[in-house]
Amino acid sequence: MMEFLKIIDKLLAWISIGVIRVYQWTLSPDMWILSPLLKGEICTHEPHCSAYGIQVLKRYWFRHWLPKLTDRILSCKPRNKKMYDPDHYRIVFFSSAEIGVPFLEQLYNDKRFEIVWVVTQEDKPVWRWLKITPNVIKTKALELWIANENIYTPTKIHPDKSLEGKHFNDWLIEKAADFYVVIAYGKILPQVILDIPIFWAINVHGSLLPKYRWASPLQTVFLNKDEVSWITIMHMDEGMDTWNIIDKLAFKIPFEWTVKDLIESFKEKSPEFLNDTLWDYWKGMIKEQEQDENKANYCKKIVKEDWKIDPYTLPLDEVYAKYRWYFLWPKIRFTINDKKVGIEEIIIDEVKFLDKKDTPLLTKDNNLNKAIKQIVLKPEGKKGMDFKSFKNGYLK
After folding, report:
1. pLDDT at 76
2. Contact between residue 248 and residue 232 where contact means Cβ atoms under 8 Å apart
3. d(Cα 135, Cα 138) in Å, to the nearest integer?
4. Rounded distance, CA 337 to CA 147, Å?
5. In terms of Cα–Cα distance, which of 48, 36, 35, 38 is closest to 83?
6. Domains of the chain (ranges, CATH numbers)
7. What's the pLDDT score for residue 117?
């Protein structure tokens, strides 16, 4: 049944294209005999509405044609300024990290967008055999049947500093993309490149701006004990997270979440939010806003030494915040009898936590804070163990 409906959808689309062709050569002010006098005076969009209708029918087929064309015609007034309004947007996608994979997939599968180029970091040697291996973005692009010639891995990108950078810049100009979408690319894009797309270079930031700029925004919300996190879509400039905000999306952080859960939620919620934001923004449905520099804060870079805690003095509130923050790396640890002990897992009774959050993880007589339902501790060189086993082996 679904296949039959698809056939009917395509058949109606091609019939409609034929009708529009007849209109273009008989009545259209942009194409018929009087077009030299009327062209650009009736339809203020580029491409004009009949050409747009044909493009929509070819890309989306008949069932999406009427609402899209109706919306276009209703916004087309002779007094409007000439406006570029394509049936879909052309994207150059910059990313080199696993977090960019769902964004690449969402853009690829959304007919409102066309990925004309994927830019990622060069293939690198991995593991002990040092086999040259593409990163996850290039791998996923190939899985999506993006042609290898449309995947570029430049080592130099600044046009003024190398011949490769000059070629890269020329190729970007030739692609004539509407947007650049940049997510964890790993290299700083110079302003000369950010100025190339027809619209803007866009970045997806993993938290609220300007409150959480720079290195570790997803992690820092836990250190500050926030109950809500954000996704921010912003314009890019050479500064780090400094230019105008296009849109923001808030979502709650459950008490039991760590940064791992937050990253997974970010990867789940952000791609669709990005696509809808890009589409609505240039249609005039979203207005950008400047960042308030007086509210700007800067997240520090995570370093290995951040794992240290004192289980006998640091309040459970602070221990849990650090545990959630450093859950992926470097994980929090403490030292007992010159042996490092990592905290692999903490499960806390949220009700009891309200009464016990200001008391330490361990009492002076080596009893566990009563708000903790379960804890897994891993002494250096040993397997993880529950608190009873740990106490019997290390706290006698």
Report:
1. 66
2. yes
3. 6
4. 58
5. 48
6. 2-84 (no CATH), 89-299 (3.40.50.170), 304-394 (3.10.25.10)
7. 94
